[in-house]
Amino acid sequence: MHFLVIKKQYLFLTVLFLAAAASYWLLQTPDAETVTSPAQGDTAREIHLVTGEFKATTKDGRKIESYRWDPGAIVLKKGEKVSLKIYGVNGMEHPFMIEGTDIKGSVKQGEETAVPLQFNKEGVYRLICLTHPDKDSNGPMIAYIFVE
Predict the structure, then answer these.
(1) Sign of dihedral through CA atoms 100, 104, 66, 76?
(2) N or C end of the chain: which has fewer CB within 10 A?
């Protein structure tokens, strides 16, 4: 039977070489894009939201829940065309409005609702679920749209 004997110094040099090669490779690999740009011909950037729900039981056994939009905040540029796509995960239906606009709609469980957006004025706009607008109705289910 044949055995391969490796001296400690060669093992150390091999590990050091592999670590250096891995570091070089990681530094050369571009980071993933966190913001997507519209492809040529596309006119609107897509932003995806989902409906979510948190449930808990208090120490005294009372069940509580709260609904939310996720993510809870998005940032747009003034004049930017956006297609806000909201997928209904939790809750049967979430009728909504965007405060300061005439935009209204509804998101149903298992379906995606597309909302075209283009704000011409900077500010903060609230996407409000009309079923869950405050704590007393398992909310507030509010997302913030920041227009810069």
Answers:
(1) negative
(2) N
